[in-house]
Amino acid sequence: MAQTPSAKPVSRKSAASAKVGTTVTKENLKALGADRLADLLVDLAEQDAGLTRKLRMALTATHAKDKLGKEIEKRLRTIQRSRGFLPWDRIRPLAAELDTLRQSILDDVATTDIGQAISAMRLLVELAPSVYERSDDSSGYLSDVFREAASDLGALWGRQSGRDLASIVGDLLTLLDIDGYGTCDRLLTSCGEALGASGAAMLRTTLLTRLHDLPASRGREDYRADIARMQALRHLRDLADAMDDVDAYIEAVGLSDHQSAHISDVARRLLDKRRPQEALEWLDRETDEESRFRRGNDDLRIEACEVVGDRNKAQSLRWKIFRERLSLPHWQAYQRHLSDYDAIDAEEQALDHIRNFPVRSVALSTLLEWPALDAAARLVREHTAELDGRDYGTLRPAADRLSETYPYEATLLYRLLVEAVLEKALSRYYAYAAKDLASCRLLAPMLTAADGMETHETFMTRLEAKHKRKLGFWSLVKE
Question: Which InterPro entries does its entry note (predicted)?
Answer without folding.
Answer: DUF6880 (IPR049245)
